[in-house]
Structure to design on (341 residues):
């Protein structure tokens, strides 16, 4: 029996707004997609079948659909990521509503993605070093571009980058957590791009945090593995015995601070950047959350008070604020509310 000259489908948004369209059977899914966007008065998105499959825009309507099919035009929130670069340049990368990605800015900082543009489809998340980008696709693979020395070239680990869940970045290297809890790194070796010395320990990884040139991973058992430049927190050997039952890690440019399940805090890295919290150890109890600047930490305690340490010019000394604002304690619970939302 011959295929009908046209096919009638229903396209709806998650809001419930629906439109019925008649489209030529030989037309492409892209043609249907554009008509649906115009009829629904929305921007770019992804066409999904009733079973949740993404429709390939190049396919013909008659090869994938039949009259009466119900489709969803799913729109993602636009995400913009920046490669901060140096003082003389930077670039941006953006995930569009249809899951594609565009980049702009200086090419040496990742501002041109033309070489990988045809692979930037169904992008879920983008991470950036100072001059390169890494995009996680819906199938768990990764596409990179930008300065090769800063992670823009992942060809050496391409075959390992499968089922990627999350990516963290230092200034010049990337670290990817895979579905099995293992970690793959690439980029500048002195910025954490070489994790070979720690690879045997990097199993069942749950979270990775980064300074400018080092990484720290929390394992499922609550212990921590660090690697990268030791001047940036790449070695936690001096506090290894204290790093038990770790729940979260925060970082400045050169140091890490770990919150333990009992509410205490362990720090390591460059002392001038918050790596030494010995002066306030007695106060760091019942810590709920830690925020950081480039060279200092601020911890919010359960009673709403705040403890700071690190470089004074980066916020490591809050005594002046306490003296100038005797009622500042009233604001701490408000700060806590916004940071923990």
């Amino acid at each position: 029996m011959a295929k009908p000259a046209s096919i009638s489908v229903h396209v709806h948004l998650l809001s419930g707004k629906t439109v019925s369209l008649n489209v030529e059977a030989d037309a492409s899914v892209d043609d249907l997609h554009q008509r649906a966007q115009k009829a629904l008065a929305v921007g770019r998105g992804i066409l999904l079948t009733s079973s949740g499959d993404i429709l390939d825009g190049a396919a013909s309507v008659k090869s994938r659909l039949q009259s009466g099919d119900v489709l969803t035009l799913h729109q993602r929130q636009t995400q913009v990521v920046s490669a901060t670069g140096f003082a003389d340049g930077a670039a941006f990368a953006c995930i569009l509503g249809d899951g594609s990605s565009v980049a702009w800015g200086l090419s040496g900082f990742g501002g041109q993605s033309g070489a990988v543009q045809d692979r930037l489809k169904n992008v879920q998340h983008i991470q950036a070093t100072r001059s390169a980008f890494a995009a996680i696709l819906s199938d768990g693979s990764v596409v990179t571009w930008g300065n090769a020395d800063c992670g823009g070239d992942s060809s050496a680990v391409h075959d390992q980058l499968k089922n990627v869940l999350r990516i963290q970045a230092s200034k010049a290297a990337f670290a990817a957590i895979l579905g099995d809890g293992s970690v793959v790194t690439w980029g500048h070796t002195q910025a954490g791009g070489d994790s070979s010395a720690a690879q045997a320990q990097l199993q069942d990884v749950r979270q990775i945090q980064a300074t400018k040139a080092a990484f720290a991973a929390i394992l499922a058992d609550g212990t921590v593995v660090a690697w990268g430049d030791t001047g940036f927190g790449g070695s936690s050997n001096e506090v290894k015995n204290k790093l038990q039952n770790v729940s979260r890690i925060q970082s400045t440019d050169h140091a890490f601070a770990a919150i333990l399940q009992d509410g205490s805090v362990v720090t390591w890295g460059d002392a001038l950047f918050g790596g030494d919290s010995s002066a306030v150890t007695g106060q760091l109890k019942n810590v709920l959350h830690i925020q950081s600047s480039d060279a200092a930490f601020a911890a919010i305690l359960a009673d709403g008070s705040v403890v700071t340490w690190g470089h004074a010019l980066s916020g490591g000394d809050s005594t002046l604020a306490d003296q100038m604002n005797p009622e500042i304690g009233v604001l701490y619970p408000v700060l806590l509310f916004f940071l923990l939302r």
Notes: The chain is about 10% helix and 35% strand. The longest helix spans residues 29-40. The domain at 76-194 is CATH 2.130.10.30 (Methylamine Dehydrogenase; Chain H). The CA atoms of residues 27 and 60 lie 6 Å apart.
